Amino acid sequence: MASVVELLPKEYGYVVIVLVLYCFLNFYMAFLVGKARKKYKVFYPTLYASESENKDAKLFNCVQRGHQNSLEMMPMFFMLMALGGLNHPCICTALGVVYTVSRYFYFTGYSTGEPENRLKIGKYSLLALFALMFCNISAGCALLKQ
């Protein structure tokens, strides 16, 4: 009996590596949110700072929101990578790298305290996500043709 790994395309290993790289990016963002909590004095369990109580609320909230948005998008990204990568591992790997790098710039841009900075390079993460959706549609159609 063949193991599941033997049934996957060899290039699927790249998909796995990109997913792990995104996990490291998530840890990095979480670390910076923790540093911002100390710097701007926003203590747990407070998720967002109140501008009426903290003069640095916008700065902290931008760091927090950059990470939070990345967490909100992570399940969709992981699912699209994992499933689309079964049929299109190299394309999904390239799109996953674009997505991960774009999310880094989304976060760092947001963390400047000017929310519009998140979109300078961060906007490409949405393009990569939509392209991953097309890879999944293609994979689904290929399954239906069998």
Automatic annotation (TrEMBL):
A Pfam short name: MAPEG
Membrane topology: Multi-pass membrane protein
PANTHER family, alphabetized: MICROSOMAL GLUTATHIONE S-TRANSFERASE
EC annotation from Swiss-Prot or TrEMBL: 4.4.1.20
Keywords attached to this entry: Lipid metabolism, Lipoprotein, Lyase, Membrane, Mitochondrion, Mitochondrion outer membrane, Oxidoreductase, Palmitate, Transferase, Transmembrane, Transmembrane helix
Transmembrane domains' residue ranges: 12-33, 77-101, 121-144
Superkingdom of the organism of origin: Eukaryota
GO biological process: leukotriene metabolic process; lipid metabolic process
A GO cellular component entry from the record: nuclear envelope
Locations listed in the record: Mitochondrion outer membrane
High-level lineage: Eukaryota, Viridiplantae, Streptophyta, Embryophyta, Tracheophyta
One function term, GO molecular function aspect: glutathione peroxidase activity
Chief place where the protein resides: mitochondrion
Protein name, per record: Glutathione S-transferase 3, mitochondrial
Keyword Transferase tagged: yes
